[in-house]
Request: fold
Amino acid sequence: MKLLLFILISFQLSFAASAEKVEQYLLVSSSDEELLALESQFSAMQNGFSTDANGEKKTYDMQLLSIRFNEYIQQHLSDNEMDKILENYKNVVYLQFVSTAMHVPEANETEAYIDSLKNDDEAKARLEILEEVNTRLNNKDSMSIMFDALMKPLLQSASGGMSNEMMKKRREAYMKNISIQARKETLYNLKDFSIEELEELLKVVKTPAMSHELKAIYGATAYALKEFFLSMASRYDVSKHQPPSTTDTNDTK
Reply:
């Protein structure tokens, strides 16, 4: 039994990325900045939900977000996968995209730009590349992780609960909204890239390493936030934030 346990632990350690490579990844990617932004955003949110149903003061240590994020990345990416991910960050065009992706444009800006592409015959080739880049970067399998691993458990544990049918509708609405928003931002943030640069970026986002990175990032973000959101679930009653049903309305009449 001890030998089997040793083999299992050794296998897990050989698969996991080293702490040094995780730190290197956090430095070259925008993950550190995004985590700091999340910590600030959700720290402010926590202030509005500082007491539970019994009036007891509850706070969540926001530094755990970074700790849990790093832990997930290290456990779900091998050294070999991390090497290939880091190789992508040596590409100047990809680094340029990572920098621009930190900007969140206004809705009217994105819509005006996308409309201009649709109305320009010469932009057809450009739009085709943009759409393919978007499909690779904002694939639904990766984005669905956030709902399934984070939002669904939160809604299930919250006081008042949620039916399976309503959960299904929430998931569909979430995927539709996040896909539309992500596409608009991606297309807009690439507006200053030349056709040649877009073609180079497309090569990067097509790599298996990109797929590994996206799944790990969404999974790590959900894992980092899960405990925080569950700590707030007891202070949020879903039933108080749902519109009245048709039946309820008819009964009232």
Q: What stands out?
A: The radius of gyration is 22 Å. The first helix runs from residue 2 to 15.
